[in-house]
């Protein structure tokens, strides 16, 4: 089956822009191995750290003068969200690989990023309200519970990745059958690839959002201990808006990049081959997501402060 | 594809590649401790022990203080109980300190006295753990080199001396000289540390690479 698929790939034309791709790859590899790169990474990490500390100070100030600092807490939370989302978490990796392997419209790409960020904020708020505020868990215990909670999200991702992979294999197989039955005449009877599925999109967002952001947990717990919980909730929502902004940009970039690759590397002569190619990409993407989920489940071991 | 789009998409892909490959997730460390150490050398030239102050960071102090008050409803009782818990937690790790005299590791005794205090710094309450280690057998250190490394092995907590003045020698009839040697972790190690997410299995030993070393030459 595989050999017929590979043999069926006909090269239509390689557009002259392929060199651009090669140059980009070389530039990227050169950058990645340069000192400049680790300097940049270090810069981002230290900026995040500075924001983290700023956030702590801000929450303490809100406790002293809520009416003065309440608004600035929200502003700083928003900026923290933007910056925090610039470092890659698993959420972004999932969003990018999902969008690359399941082409979506620009609107749905943004919707995915936005809803993932909102789910993440809601998870944090529900967890802290339930465990910390109502059940009086300690911060460290709550962090452990939160990490166990995110296991559900990883499990969901694993199942989703497996499901999409299985579906694309079945569809590939079906298209193969259709192909052998009527030869080359049946380009109209091509297998339908589901490209737009809102519920699947939201499931992906939910799976990502089930892992609460540590920054959100931090301001929620701190504000609840200081008796200004409502500001913590507002700050968390502002933070998730910031996160949505950054991940939305990433989602859009991913969408553009997929379109660019499709235009630059169009290898397949007919519509049907193109569709199979799409299915193969979908299969690869979903296997990647499933593997990523498995790695996250495997690594899910929350470290806590060894002193207290 | 017009010129603008032609220009935009490679930038988008490069940006995306960057975002996927940079390793700036939620980084280690998560808490910070400022150290202050006093090494005690008596007039006969014996190292009798050392005392240490650990000033916890604002966030840790705030949360621990609030949780302590929720649990005990009484500050002195809470501070005493929390101090006991802390000391018990670090005891298996030799109180996070490694003391050597002329290369020989000296086992640390249970601290003779320890207290946890809530001190106000810049308007914010900070918890400070004070411990006093008195060696069961004082060591003659004339002409010898003492090293003291204080670090948390998993690097969940960074322990640093804010300045060389935070190390001092009491008594010091021998006129020993103290030197603070900052950690010089390789760039790759820094990359590794900042790439560590909360959910990483094995970071044990990482703290040692970032440890600051106090050396005293007598």
Query: Strand count, sense and closure of the main sheet of chain B?
Result: 6 strands, mixed
**Which regions of chain A have little confidence, pLDDT < 50, spanning 5+ residues?**
10-14, 182-194
* Overall body shape of chain B: globular
Shape of chain A: globular
Total strands of chain B: the figure is: 11
What is the residue-averaged pLDDT of chain B?
81
Total helices of chain B: the number is 5
What do these coordinates show?
The complex is a heterodimer of chains A (308) and B (218). Residues 10-14 and 182-194 of chain A have low confidence and may be disordered. Helix content of chain A is 80%, strand content 0%. Chain A is mainly α and 308 residues long. Chain B has 5 helices and 11 strands. In chain B, helix 2 (58-72) crosses helix 3. Chain B is globular, with a radius of gyration of 22 Å. At the A-B interface, helix 2, helix 3, helix 5, helix 7 and helix 9 of A face helix 1, helix 2, helix 3 and helix 4 of B.
Write the layout of secondary structure elements.
The complex is a heterodimer of chains A (308) and B (218).
Chain A: H1 2-8, H2 18-32, H3 35-64, H4 66-84, H5 90-101, H6 106-134, H7 139-182, H8 198-209, H9 214-225, H10 229-264, H11 271-299
Helix pairs in contact in A: 3-4, 3-9, 4-10, 5-8, 5-10, 5-11, 6-8, 6-9, 6-10, 7-8, 7-11, 9-10
Chain B: H1 3-21, E1 31-41, E2 46-56, H2 58-72, H3 75-90, E3 97-101, E4 104-106, E5 113-121, E6 124-140, E7 145-150, E8 157-160, E9 167-171, E10 177-181, H4 187-195, H5 206-209, E11 212-217
Parallel strand pairs in B: 1-8, 1-9
Antiparallel strand pairs in B: 1-2, 2-6, 3-4, 3-7, 5-6, 7-11, 10-11
Helix pairs in contact in B: 2-3
Short characterization:
The complex is a heterodimer of chains A (308) and B (218). Chain A has 308 residues and is an all-alpha fold.
């Amino acid at each position: 089956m595989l050999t017929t698929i590979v043999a069926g790939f006909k090269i239509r034309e390689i557009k002259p822009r392929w060199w651009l791709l090669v140059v980009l790859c070389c530039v990227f590899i050169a950058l990645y191995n340069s000192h400049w790169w680790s300097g940049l990474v270090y810069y981002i990490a230290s900026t995040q750290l500075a924001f983290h500390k700023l956030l702590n100070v801000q929450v303490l100030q809100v406790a002293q003068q809520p009416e003065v600092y309440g608004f600035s807490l929200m502003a700083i939370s928003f900026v923290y969200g933007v910056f925090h989302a610039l470092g890659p978490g698993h959420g972004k990796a999932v969003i990018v690989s999902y969008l690359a392997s399941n082409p979506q419209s620009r609107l749905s790409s943004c919707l995915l990023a936005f809803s993932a960020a909102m789910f993440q904020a809601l998870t944090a708020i529900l967890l802290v309200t339930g465990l910390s505020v109502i059940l009086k868990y300690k911060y460290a215990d709550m962090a452990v519970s939160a990490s166990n909670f995110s296991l559900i999200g990883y499990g969901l991702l694993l199942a989703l990745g497996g499901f999409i992979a299985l579906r694309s294999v079945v569809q590939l197989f079906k298209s193969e059958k259709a192909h052998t039955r009527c030869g080359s005449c049946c380009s109209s009877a091509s297998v339908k690839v589901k490209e737009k599925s809102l519920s699947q999109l939201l499931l992906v967002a939910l799976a990502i959002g089930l892992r609460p952001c540590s920054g959100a947990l931090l301001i929620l717990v701190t504000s609840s201990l200081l008796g200004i919980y409502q500001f913590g909730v507002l700050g968390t929502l502002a933070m998730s808006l910031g996160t949505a902004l950054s991940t939305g940009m990433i989602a859009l970039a991913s969408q553009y990049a997929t379109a660019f690759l499709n235009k630059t590397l169009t290898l397949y002569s007919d519509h049907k081959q193109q569709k199979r190619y799409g299915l193969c990409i979908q299969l690869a993407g979903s296997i990647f997501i499933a593997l990523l989920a498995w790695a996250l489940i495997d690594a899910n071991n929350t470290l806590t402060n060894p002193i207290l | 594809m017009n010129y603008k789009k032609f220009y935009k998409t490679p930038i988008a892909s490069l940006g995306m590649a960057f975002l996927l490959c940079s390793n700036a997730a939620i980084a280690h460390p998560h808490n910070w401790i400022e150290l202050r150490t006093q090494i005690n050398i008596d007039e006969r030239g014996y190292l009798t022990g050392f005392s240490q102050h650990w000033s916890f960071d604002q966030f840790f102090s705030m949360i621990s203080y609030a949780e302590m008050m929720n649990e005990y409803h009484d500050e002195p009782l809470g501070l005493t109980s929390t101090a006991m818990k802390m000391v018990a937690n670090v005891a298996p790790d030799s109180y996070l300190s490694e003391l050597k005299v002329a290369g020989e590791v000296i086992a640390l005794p249970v601290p003779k006295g320890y207290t946890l205090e809530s001190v106000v710094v810049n308007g914010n309450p900070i918890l400070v753990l004070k411990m006093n280690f008195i060696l069961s057998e004082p060591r003659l250190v004339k002409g010898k080199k003492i090293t003291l490394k204080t670090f948390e092995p998993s690097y969940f907590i960074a322990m640093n001396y804010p300045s060389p003045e935070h190390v001092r020698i009491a008594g010091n009839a021998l006129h020993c000289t103290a030197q603070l040697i900052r950690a010089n972790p390789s760039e790759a190690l820094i990359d590794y540390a900042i790439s560590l997410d909360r959910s990483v299995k094995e970071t044990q030993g990482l703290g040692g690479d970032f440890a600051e070393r106090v050396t005293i030459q007598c």
